[in-house]
């Protein structure tokens, strides 16, 4: 946080510097655009082939093949979810929240990609429908589906409260990934990463730049639907914060289940989808 009383005096040109207009770092027009026509055709042929219900304060994993869709739905009551994505064949390729934020902004919606980590750095999934797109940004600068938070975890909780709490999203995702893959818990934990905060309403305070949350506007029936650009392993935690209106990392908030359904147009239709190639950067890093 910035100091109330800075220790260094401002230069004479301070106001001039502050008045400079910002420049968008990564204009989205220069990014590869989603192939909406193909995705729409595939969605039209898709039928539901899979479903998991994630219990409150727990997580689940499900595989989604490239060219299929998955829908995260609110059921029973307002609930936020912490989403991890992995390449189903290589867990080291995983969702890169920070780069996705740099490319698409702090909060995602329809048309945005979820990008993977280096060196693959390619679209893993594309958002194709978002029933909360009406929310936009509120007067506090808050919005839904952020890529600015990390995930609630027992380590931060321990530092802040002195207690061990085991049903944070980080631990939920660790248990679910270990159960799905058969990896030991400590190996699974290393693959859990910063999330897309599905349905969560968050922002940064205008005056101090602090991360804030407020009650999610999500209602039962709302959903976020994504297209799998590559073969995916999807992990989702139903956050112990419930709608995140007051706190997380405890058992006090009202929590509800979340549902993931998989919508598959069939193998031959899926094969018409061109899986994004690994990033073509040489990997040389200036050596040799
Ligand atoms: Zn959480």
TrEMBL record:
Residues 268-288 are annotated as: Disordered. This is DUF1989 domain-containing protein. InterPro entries: DUF1989. It comes from Yoonia litorea. Residues 53-233 form the DUF1989 domain. Residues 269-282 have a biased composition (Polar residues).
């Amino acid at each position: 946080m910035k100091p109330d009383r800075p220790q260094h005096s401002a230069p004479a040109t301070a106001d001039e510097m502050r008045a400079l207009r910002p420049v968008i770092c990564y204009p989205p027009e220069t990014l590869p655009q989603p192939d909406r026509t193909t995705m729409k055709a595939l969605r039209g042929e898709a039928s539901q082939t899979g479903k998991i219900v994630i219990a409150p304060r727990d997580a689940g994993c499900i595989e989604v093949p490239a060219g299929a869709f998955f829908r995260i739905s609110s059921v029973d009551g307002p609930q936020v979810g912490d989403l991890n994505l992995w390449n189903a064949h290589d867990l080291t390729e995983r969702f890169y929240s920070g780069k996705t934020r740099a490319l698409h902004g702090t909060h995602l919606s329809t048309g945005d990609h979820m990008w993977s980590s280096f060196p693959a750095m390619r679209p893993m999934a594309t958002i194709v429908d978002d029933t909360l797109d009406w929310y936009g940004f509120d007067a506090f600068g808050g919005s839904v589906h952020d890529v600015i938070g990390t995930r609630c975890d027992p380590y931060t909780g321990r530092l802040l409260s002195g207690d061990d709490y085991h049903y944070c999203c980080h631990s939920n995702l660790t248990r679910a990934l270990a159960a799905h893959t058969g990896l030991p818990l400590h190996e699974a934990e290393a693959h859990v990463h910063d999330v897309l905060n599905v349905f969560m309403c968050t922002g940064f305070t205008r005056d101090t730049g602090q991360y804030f949350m407020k009650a999610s506007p999500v209602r039962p029936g709302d959903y976020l639907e994504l297209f799998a650009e590559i073969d995916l392993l999807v992990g989702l935690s139903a956050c112990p914060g419930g709608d995140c209106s007051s706190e997380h990392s405890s058992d006090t908030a009202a929590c509800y289940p979340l549902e993931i359904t998989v919508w598959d147009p069939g193998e031959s239709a899926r094969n018409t989808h061109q899986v994004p190639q690994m990033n073509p950067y040489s990997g040389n890093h200036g050596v040799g």
